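Table S2 (continued). Query chain:
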Amino acid sequence: MTTRLADHLTIGQVAQRSGVPHTALRFYEERGLISSERSSGNQRRYPRTVLRRIAFIRAAQRVGLSLEDIGEALATLPNDHAPTKADWARLSRNWRDELDARIDALQRLRDQLTGCVGCGCLSLRSCGLHNVDDRLARFGPGAPLLKPAAEGGIE
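Corresponding output:
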């Protein structure tokens, strides 16, 4: 649906209003997270609803979601009008389990690392990072003692 470009924002206006640099806006557009129309002078023009999408992208990035996950979620939202409250609620319900798992992982990390003093653990028997002779390699990359079992961690 094409609208009057005069009702749209320039890339500079979007950058200023969103706090996101021009380069990031171009990157988001290349990845299909946001879209623009082109003026007769081939300048980007963004619908005002792009500000809400950018705020969503930034919030999702802050909680550690990948741009791929964010893109998949945004693909479920309408392109011809601003998403409704119901659209956002549906999208957030789909991420609830993922976010709960991330919260659990962060809490486990926080709680297990409080026993460390620098990198000289108070107890190597209970350290979530200690991996003598790489015995935990079979559980995959990272620190499996710090991951929830649902993500391949060891309970």
